[in-house]
Specification:
This protein is an alpha/beta fold and 359 residues long. Helices cover 48% and strands 16% of the residues. The radius of gyration is 20 Å and the shape is globular.
């Protein structure tokens, strides 16, 4: 891919390649925009097919974090890191694991606070502790807020209820059919929230043990990964990797709502967002509905207070309702309403930053 062209088109600031031969560390850190504050975003480990896939993923994820922080009203910019590898194998090699994460921590430290990291796919609070040995620019530590997954899940649950309110006139989930794609830390907790309220769950994951666990715990129905998107359900809840809504999958959709914790759900926002809008499918913009984890780790920076975090996560319900209302009033796809909200806040704060404060 033409990296500089892509970065210029979407206003990126920095793309950092990392490599450490002894520990096997290979990856990238991307900083999209720091108008609102330092870039904060999780570190993801994944077995990417090739380098370009990893680059595109980190670019898209970092840009999404800028929008997420802006819409959530946080004083943060957008950044992300992706590391190429197998997280399960890394966790099994205790010696290499320490060296791997401490090497990565040194790269984070070298950015001087422009980027603050946290957990994401394939990483844990224990990994963050190793990183913390080399830099203070890390959140999600065990002695502060720990794993942000429960707060991400809570926000997604609130956002789903906001969509259901629009669809049925009530936010109650009893009897609603939900297809959940991906049963990682967040996906499993979303299952619990929905099952506790009487939703009917259909689940899929490439990890069959996770599927078996969800079937047992939540009386869910197991579905093959290739069939989950096209199920005839009320809600499709994507909780795996991004770009799942695209020109190939859109014709198969039978759901009324798309709302989940995955980042970058739309492969091409301008095209795919418009298509599902025209089909009458209600889409909860991913970086709005899944902001709970970011809200949680941001509190570590300003002084952690769990009750304050929960109150802010609860507001995701109102934010999704506001986006839906504006979308209906203007006949604008919800993704575009959310994009506009983010861009307006960034531009306003950029203008405020130009005010001279004196010496």
């Amino acid at each position: 891919m033409e990296k500089f062209d892509y970065m210029e088109k979407y206003g990126y600031e920095q793309l950092v390649y990392m490599h450490d031969r002894s520990s096997g560390l290979k990856g990238l850190i991307c900083i999209h925009n720091t108008t609102l504050g330092p870039a904060l975003g999780g570190t993801r480990i994944w077995e990417y097919a090739n380098e370009d896939d990893a680059v595109l993923d980190v670019l898209r994820l970092a840009r999404g974090m800028t929008k997420k922080a802006a819409c959530a009203g946080l004083n943060l910019g957008g950044g992300k890191a992706v590391l190429i590898g197998n997280s399960k194998k890394l966790r099994q090699d205790t010696v290499r694991r320490e060296a791997f994460w401490r090497a990565y921590g040194k790269y984070v430290e070298s950015l001087g606070g422009r980027y603050i990291t946290a957990e994401d796919v394939g990483t844990t609070p224990e990994d963050m502790e190793y990183i913390h040995m080399e830099t203070k620019h890390v959140t999600g530590l065990r002695n502060t807020s720990g794993d942000p997954s429960p707060l991400t899940a809570l926000g997604v649950y609130k956002g789903i209820k906001a969509c259901v309110k629009e669809l049925t006139g009530t936010s109650k989930m009893d009897g609603m059919k939900v297809a959940i794609q991906g049963l990682g830390h967040v996906g499993m907790i979303i299952c619990k929230h929905l099952a506790d309220e009487g939703a009917v769950l259909y689940v899929s994951d490439i990890d069959t043990e996770r599927v078996d666990e969800a079937v047992k715990q939540f009386n869910a129905t197991a579905v093959k990964p290739e069939e989950i998107i096209g199920l005839d359900v009320d809600i499709f809840c994507p909780c795996a990797l991004g770009a799942i809504i695209n020109e190939e999958t859109i014709p198969t959709l039978k759901c009324k709502i798309i709302a989940g914790c995955a980042n970058n759900v739309l492969k091409e926002s301008a095209v795919d967002g418009q298509k599902i809008h025209d089909m009458g499918i209600l889409y909860a913009p991913d970086y709005v509905i899944n902001a709970g984890g970011l809200i949680n780790v941001y509190q570590e920076i300003i002084g952690y207070d769990y009750n304050s975090v929960v109150r802010q996560v609860d507001v995701i319900y109102d934010r999704i309702r506001e986006i839906i209302r504006t979308s209906k009033e203007t006949n604008t796809p919800t993704y575009l309403v959310a994009d506009t909200m983010a861009e307006k806040r960034i531009e306003m704060m950029r203008n405020i930053s130009s005010i001279y404060l004196g010496k």
